Amino acid sequence: MRVRLTSHGMTKFTVNDRPVQYHMDPQTPLLWALRDASNLTGTKYGCGTGDCGACTVDIDGMAIRSCRVTIAAVEGRFVTTIEGLSPDRSHPVQEAWAAQNVPQCGYCQSGMIMAASALLRRNRDPSDADIDAAMTNICRCGTYPRVREAIKQAARIMRGDERVAATPAPGISAAEAARHVPGMSAPRRGGAQ
Ligand code: FES
Ligand code: FES
After folding, report:
1. How many angstroms does the Cα of residue 8 sit away from the middle of ligand 2?
2. How does the average pLDDT of the chain come out, rounded?
3. 105 within ligand 2 shell (Cβ under 6 A)
């Protein structure tokens, strides 16, 4: 699916702490503005119907499925994508995800991580029931048990009850793992500024 760009209309909000103006149809789903105009491709397209959670981003502290919200609906709000969760993959959820080796194919994982981080922002000690209620994302690889363990570990890290060595995955150097993740690419003509 491609977004339709228009020569008129401007939608302004904040993405990963940067003010952005989208010269696009205001009814464009946020997912496509992020991916097509801002090149923030960490947010994935799965179903487009709000069911799978692959497109989950954080909007004003809430986990929101970006395929089901228009850019007009986020005017003036603060959007965080997986690229903006931390500058160096040091968010406790990311550390716990690595420690628990959660990802398999990885496709659902950015949405899972964004949903988990939103959960832990409002609940520093979630129960299994809390996690099950918040984590409605679908994983075709069946990582659910590891997701649950990683969320509990991230909670311990955030409470200061545990520290983990943020070891990179095998085959990735420490320098590469710590490399700054660019939150935005250069603006594209007709898209975001
Ligand atoms: S792509 Fe948005 S919920 Fe599946
Ligand atoms: S890790 Fe493959 S879909 Fe979740």
Report:
1. 39
2. 88
3. yes
